Amino acid sequence: MEGILTLDRELDVGLLDRIVQTFYMGAGAEQQEAQRVLTQFQAHPDAWMQADAILEKAEFPQTKYIALSILDRLITTRWKMLPKEQRLGIRNFIVAVLIKNSADETSLQQQKTYLNKLDLTLVQILKQEWPHNWPNFIPEIVQASKTNLSLCENNMIILRLLSEEIFDYSAEQMTQSKTKNLKNQMCGEFAEIFQLCSQVLERAQKPSLIKVTLETLLRFLSWIPLGYIFETAITEQITSRFLTVPAFRNVTMECLTEIAGLTSQPQYNNKFVAMFHLVINAVSSMLPLQTDFREAYEESSSNEQDFIQNLALFLTTFFSSHLRPLETPENQEILLVAHSYLLNISRINEREIFKICLEYWGKLVSQLYEEMQQLPMSEMNPLLNLSSPASLISSNPAMLANLPLRKHIYKDILSTLRLVMIESMVKPEEVLIVENDEGEIVREFVKETDTITLYKSMREVLVYLTHLDVVDTEIVMTEKLARIVVGTEWSWQNLNTLCWAIGSISGAMNEEMEKRFLVNVIKDLLGLCEMKRGKDNKAVVASNIMYVVGQYPRFLKAHWKFLKTVINKLFEFMHEYHEGVQDMACDTFIKIAQKCRRHFVAQQVGESEPFINEIIRNLPKTTEDLTAQQTHTFYEACGHMISAQPQKQIQEHLIFDLMSLPNQAWDNVVAQAAQNAQILGDPQIVKTLANVLKTNVAACTSIGAGFYPQIMKNYVDMLGLYKVVSGLISEVVAVQGNIATKTPHVRGLRTIKKEVLKLVDAYISHAEELDLVSHTLIAPLFEAVLLDYYNNVPDARDAEVLNLITTIVNQLSELLTDKIPLVLDAVFGCTLEMISKDFSEYPEHRAAFFQLLRAINLNCFPALLNIPAPQFKLVINSIVWSFKHVSRDIQETGLNILLELINNMANSGPDVSNIFFQNYYIPLLQDILYVLTDSDHKSGFKLQSLILARLFFLVESSQITVPLYDPTQFPPDMNNQLFLRQYIMNLLSTAFPHLQPLQIQEFVQTVLALNQDHPKFKLALRDFLIQLKEFGGDNADLYLEEKEQEIAAQQKAQMEKAMTVPGMIKPVDMPTMEEEEL
């Protein structure tokens, strides 16, 4: 096998064929040896010189593919270094091979994969050579296409690939200027290409050529001037000749959809409308409107199903761009027919198609609502000269009947759409009970992100539909519920979708209408619950009652008796053992507690005491059938209510009553443990202690700072227990070794430690009197926790310790600065040793460790200046190690720490900053340049570029006043600016020898000059990285920041818009306003 590696003599192509066959078809050691030899062969810098021999002589197809991959690598990384003659030779050779293999129909069909790879190689050459070194390429390929049908077919593919490379994929693979030049050239020479496509589509009879030409045209349509589309007969040609032909209808519809998405000047409106008429008439002949689309889709072939999806895309794209010209009286009939088609498609049981339709329905109802909102009140009621609130308009649809609103055009469409949305409604995330594949009602454990996103979109549409005609919405929903109650439409699915829809429009009606509507709905549902027999049926109805009431906090707040009835009903459901019902009852209870918390601690009219008193008094009975986790949720819900009690004394009394059961259990066990620590060997005792601590964590999380009396009551005992448990764990580990940490007994003991830490964390994160916390809680805590962490074996160290210290540092800030050296001595070195052996072990400790470092740097920076130099160096090394990590989160944390540290140092005065930068500037610069140019760290590009710009600024602005170099090794006129330029150029030329010195020099001068203009600095960096061979693959991560900013801007705009539409933000998701609760 080694024979193919000697490239100074003629290559034995037969031997290469056999090695490639061994790799693809062999096994064992022989296959591994073949892989090793082939890898070496492909990596050899002169292997490309054998490509012509391989392509001409190889028998095995994969051998030819290897030759082409070697050529591709050469073209993308070293093309400009080759002499002109060699470049021309390679180019002409590839063209000759292409012509040879595509000149006749047999070869074209048999060599399809090989030809495709050859086409891609030619396109790579074109990206380097065209237009400057190959100005006649377009005329040549067009002329060649006219000589031979098979050649024409393959040339169409080449033109399509070239278009894709330039217009679709260029942003992440080519520099900005190169992309611009190629786009201009392609547009400038398009007339000849278009003429070729037109001739083929007009005259060709060969199906494969027609299909390829349509696919190529499809790629052109997004960027060619509109004149080619509307000032020629191309649209009529493809619609009349190909749309009704099964073999071509899908690609034709894709072309028409691409055209439909183009925006233009008003002069082309008539052309768009004419095209729309042509398409709808053609569709009507193939697929009559009366067809049962849902059933037809199920029985269709995949090709026919694709056509329905493409039809949906065409309609939604056309409506999104050109709806208004269709709303004229003469076009209304076809407009409504087309919308009826879209309604029928929306009923199909195929999620991806439904999502396409839903996106458009969302746009339509949003536009119709906005038009309605812009009407001044005086037009509807001359007696009132003020703008109309949304709720007044939407609750009085009759007021709008005589106004020229677009929504009147769509009245019947919107009414049907309401029913379609209700019947298609997907499950909200609050619903925990689902029907499984076996038709059983079970608890759902995994949230489907796609379903949650879809629910939010459907909810928006239903809210808008409610505002557009609240009366019709109520009629559609109540009639649907009536049919379910009497049994004509009873099914779990029908009840679920209706109730999910009812819950989704909470806040969209005015209060009076909502009250009437909801009272009727709940009354019907409660009656249905009583009427239905069977556990599964009752569970479905119960889950829907809980979901609906949980969505209407405004109604519950305004109707105390109803709120109390609902809560008591939830307490009943807490005794229901059917899977998921108790979970949902607890979740609904906590949701209502959060939104209506003041109502539980206030004494309501007709009541003898606040309801919270009764809830706490009956707590043992209410929770007797709940699991431990459900009970913790119950305590957390009560905590939310108690947090709303403004009088501190009453609040403390409520906390005392709430925690009486857990405190009794705690006091009992602690008293026994004080007499005999061996009782902690009893698993039941350990479980009890862990449960009590978890109950405290749950209550503390919601009560917040008011939990201080409760935590202080048990604080000393808690830390004492922590020490005792730690001692027991150490004893077991000493006897049994590390394996002991995995035993049930030790894991149970560690749960106690973890819950103690979580409880202190929960309190300190909410604490308000920070001086009190600093003086009373920290010293005993550190005494119990720090030395124990340091002395433990790695497997027995709890990441919660690091999380807790991070919380303390963030909360107490400079109050903790003097204790940071103590913290670092205890946790820094030993944790670093645990996580620095590889990139995967101890993931929780790893994330917590770097979060702690960041917190210390941000809040207690002076402490870092006072630690010994070796420890500080270790801190820097750990930061560098973190941003070289394979985990994105840890990379990001490390880069943030470094940027914040550099800023802190730069702001610390020359005495501190100069020493730091003299020691660490150059090593840090080298490390940042390493990750910047490493393809595994592309996701950190935003922060890497910020750090680099900051480092450059500090030198260019002369803020660093000491030399960053050894003055004894350089001439007297050397300075930091000059040194930095030379250093970066040397570093890059050594790392990337294939780059020209002038290229590197230009890049370095550019980025140093742009250090304060970050957007331009990033663009220059990005262009340089794309030129590097390491970045030949997917460079999407280099654009991560722009994508994230775009998403954030969209989300902000959506939120601002949603806030103006009543009901658009779910009432349970609205921030709780204190005055609302009074």
From TrEMBL:
Family, per the entry? Belongs to the exportin family.
Q: What residues does the Importin N-terminal domain cover?
A: 34-100
Top-rank taxon of the source lineage equals Eukaryota
Q: Which GO terms describe its biological process?
A: mRNA export from nucleus; protein export from nucleus; protein localization to kinetochore; ribosomal large subunit export from nucleus; ribosomal small subunit export from nucleus; tRNA re-export from nucleus
Q: Is Lipid biosynthesis a UniProt keyword of this protein?
A: no
Q: Which GO terms describe its molecular function?
A: nuclear export signal receptor activity; nuclear import signal receptor activity; small GTPase binding; U1 snRNA binding; U2 snRNA binding; U4 snRNA binding; U5 snRNA binding; U6 snRNA binding
Give the organism the record lists. Answer: Schizosaccharomyces cryophilus (strain OY26 / ATCC MYA-4695 / CBS 11777 / NBRC 106824 / NRRL Y48691)
GO CC terms, sorted: cytoplasm; kinetochore; nuclear periphery; spindle pole body
Write down what this protein is called.
Nuclear export receptor Crm1
Which InterPro entries does the record match to this protein?
ARM-like (IPR011989), ARM-type_fold (IPR016024), CRM1_repeat (IPR041123), Exp1_repeat_2 (IPR041235), Exportin-1/Importin-b-like (IPR013598), Importin-beta_N (IPR001494), XPO1/5 (IPR045065), XPO1_C_dom (IPR014877)
- Alphabetized UniProt keyword annotations: Nucleus, Protein transport, Receptor, Transport
